[in-house]
Specification:
Number of strands: 8
Shape: globular
Distance between the termini: 45 Å
Order of helices and strands: HEEEEHEHHEHHEEHH
Radius of gyration: 18 Å
Strand content: 5-15%
Oligomer: single chain
């Protein structure tokens, strides 16, 4: 068998995809992860509809940022155009994950931002997790997956938030997309998002009028992990 010139990128993408079922973020063939190589302007993504227990590193599809398949014998994920759009629009991301995880999707179906209720949320970001409104009919009937990327960008512009600070979004009536410096971080953010969605849901069951976390605690908890004088963990 001919050795792929994209073997490392395929392996990164494969490893990240295999984390989705391990972390309880997908069932059956739901979801996908991609990884980008900025130097070569290509990205790797899971093939469409392949069960995770059958997926192999050599199955991963390689495309350029214009969605042209460069290597792979199977069709890439149906969400490929969304991944390509985000890679072209946001130069500082290295991986993207999309799941249909239960609580994240529930918030998306409710068309609600996830409020920042507690310090667990503030450990990861200082904003409510945004939910983009459902796509307009004329866009759905057009280049749907491409316009899904535009839907995400429009949400961030409208809410005046940046993709480097908020690495996750919900799409109304659809589900979550997350991203990060690499594919593994994108999956990490998907798991964090699902946990925050679950916590927020339970919070509102206990107290439907629960208040948003106060700003002083938001700043304290975010800064101790991410600020210039961060002191969480062993690497500071």
């Amino acid at each position: 068998m001919k050795t792929s010139t994209f073997q490392d990128l395929k392996q990164e993408c494969y490893d990240a995809n295999m984390l989705l079922p391990k972390l309880g973020l997908v069932v059956y063939t739901f979801g996908n992860v991609s990884a980008v190589d900025r130097n070569r302007e290509v990205f790797a993504i899971k093939p469409s509809g392949v069960p995770y227990d059958e997926l192999k590193p050599e199955d991963i599809v390689i495309l350029d940022l214009e969605n042209n398949v460069l290597e792979g014998n199977m069709r890439p994920s149906s969400d490929t155009k969304t991944h390509a759009f985000l890679y072209k629009s946001w130069p500082d991301i290295g991986g993207i994950a999309h799941t249909h995880a239960t609580y994240s999707v529930a918030w998306a179906q409710a068309q609600k931002d996830i409020p920042i209720f507690g310090t667990t949320h503030a450990d990861h970001l200082t904003e409510d997790i945004p939910c983009a409104p459902p796509m307009h009919d004329q866009l759905i009937e057009g280049d749907y997956e491409h316009m899904t990327g535009q839907q995400i960008l429009d949400c961030f512009l409208e809410k005046n938030i940046t993709y480097t600070e908020v690495e996750m979004v919900l799409l109304g009536n659809h589900g979550p997309f997350t991203w990060g410096k690499n594919a593994a971080k994108a999956v990490y953010n998907s798991r964090v998002l699902e946990e925050l969605a679950y916590m927020a849901y339970i919070t509102l069951q206990i107290n439907p009028t629960a208040p948003r976390l106060k700003n002083s605690l938001i700043k304290k908890h975010y800064d101790r992990k991410h600020g210039k004088n961060a002191y969480y963990g062993q690497n500071n």
